[in-house]
Amino acid sequence: MTSRVPTPRHGIPGYYALADLPQRGAMSEMVLSTGWFEMDEIFRPYPGEFIAITGKPGHGKSTFLMNLLCQLSWKHRFKHWMFVPENEGAVIDKLELIYGQTPSVFGQFAHTQCFVQSAGGEHYNDEPQTIEWVLTAAWEAWERDQINTVTIDPWNELETARARDESVTDYVGRCLRLIKRFGRHTGCMMFVVVHPTKAANEREVTLGDCEGSQHWWNKSDHGLIVKRDVAKREGTVVVAKVREQPVAGKPGHCVFLVEPETGIFREQQGGGVAF
Predict the structure, then answer these.
(1) 179-to-29, 152, 203, 221, 230 alpha-carbon distances in Å
(2) Residues contacting residue 77 through CB under 8 Å, at least 6 positions apart
(3) Alpha-carbon distance 208 to 40, whole Å?
(4) Which of 15, 79, 191, 201 is deepest in the core (most CB within 10 A)?
(5) Which residues contact 26 (CB under 8 A, 6 or more apart)?
(6) Are 196 and 56 in contact, with CB atoms under 8 Å apart?
(7) 81 closest CA partner among 171, 206, 182, 213
(8) CA of 40: how far to CAs of 4, 67, 95, 130, 206, in Å?
(9) Domain ranges in the chain?
(10) Binning pLDDT at 50, 70 and 90, where does residue 1 land?
């Protein structure tokens, strides 16, 4: 039996009686476990959402995200697509250390669950690597390989294509609308790693410090900040923004032990604290 497709009112696209308006379903049925017990208390990701990740340079933003992607693969058999210009040349080694297990198990993951769009200019005939270009490539991966997540790391490696008289704030807002629209249509989790402004290097980073615009705070469904204490071998992930509280989490932080040899984030018992 197939479900009824709602018919627009009077044949006008997008115009519905309230009773016919398509709905996403209950959030409680959408949220997923990260595979980290303490982290689940404050952060529950869900299909189709936009997650912004920031933190000071060298504090482990990319490493934490790689850990999270591995967790989602182990827990939910997720498939991932990545555009990672800064880490492309070492991403296999980094993920293999984090993924662990045996070479054959990682090999299966690397061949069937994780895909990368190369930033190498030799592939593109000088075509600018804009957000439109990245999302077009991700769309192909979604159609052909049924991916569950899209990662852009970092944001500042994309080529800016601002329209004439378009401010940086308006440009970032337009790009994030495209990212959110992609997530809603495909159901992919959309991860974007954003560097903070240089002014934040002298103090604690907030989501409002993301380079380019306050839109990173306003438009994200989850906003995460990664902090590192190398001396203590600790990494703290701050959940600074949760749109769908309390089902998708709540503001707080989770402290991990970070293995310097592998980059693995290991959860510490009692390390998760809600604000």
Answers:
(1) 23, 10, 29, 12, 33
(2) 113
(3) 24
(4) 191
(5) none
(6) yes
(7) 182
(8) 35, 14, 22, 34, 21
(9) 60-220
(10) very low
149-152: strand order across its sheet: 114-116, 80-83, 149-152, 189-193, 50-54, 222-229, 234-242, 252-258, 265-274
Peptide bond into 260 cis (omega under 30): no
Question: In this predicted model, what pLDDT tens digit does every residue of 52-85 receive, in sequence order?
Answer: 999 999 999 999 999 999 999 999 999 999 999 9
Place of tokens 């769908």: 244
Cβ atoms 64, 268 nearer than 8 A: no
Q: How does the average pLDDT of the chain come out, rounded? A: 91
Residues 6+ apart with CB under 8 A from 156: 194, 195, 211
Nearest to 38 by CA among 233, 274, 254: 254
Q: SS3 string of 49-68? A: CEEEEECCCCCCHHHHHHHH
Contact 87/154 with Cβ under 8 angstroms?
Answer: no
Q: Which residue has 């749109």 as its token pair?
A: 243
Tokens for 220, please give them: 């994200």
Q: Is the pTM of this model over 0.85?
A: yes
**What average pLDDT does the segment 192-207 reach?**
86
- Is the N-terminal amide bond of 246 cis, ω within 30° of 0? yes
H helical segments located in the chain: 37-40, 61-76, 91-99, 103-112, 131-145, 168-186, 215-219
CA–CA gap between residue 196 and residue 46 (Å, rounded): 25
pLDDT in tens, 27-38: 999 999 999 999
Residue type (1 letter), 219: K
235 pLDDT above the threshold of 60: yes
